[in-house]
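Student: Hello, beginner here. Can you help me understand the protein record under this note? Any guidance would be welcome.
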Amino acid sequence: MDSLDSKEPIPFQRELEHTKAYLSLEKFRFGDDLNIKYDIQAMSFLLPPLSLQPIVENAVRHGIRETLDGKGTVTIMTREYVDRNEIVVTDDGTDFDTNRSPDSDKPHIGIENVRYRLKSMCNGSLTIDSAPEQGTVAVITVPKGG
């Protein structure tokens, strides 16, 4: 919980631990309706606190839970490149307008907060693509030396 108050980037491993704690509660709640996959190939980088967990929460809440049967898979992957580290969160659930909140015409506050923290703390970025019957792909990019 200390990292939630941090004004500095934290180790990815700590952010992943917070996210896994959240997902364990959701898995307990939804059982076999929620599948979670991990493909973690990079861990030695820093990122702002609460960068990954809100994106994963959106994948569960708005992607998987809003499907007709309420079932689906969330995948978390990391990759290291020469100039950056990437975290990719995918779901095979419903699509959405990436510029608007599902319940209104307001922007996605959580997504905008993550984008702001990434940009201001490490010159990072968040891109989101969503398409009907393909789910959603969110990519957090953390430049090296950023």
About this structure: Residues 2-143 form a domain with the Heat Shock Protein 90 fold (CATH 3.30.565.10). The CA atoms of residues 81 and 131 lie 26 Å apart. The longest helix spans residues 12-30. The helical segments are 12-30, 53-64, 109-122.
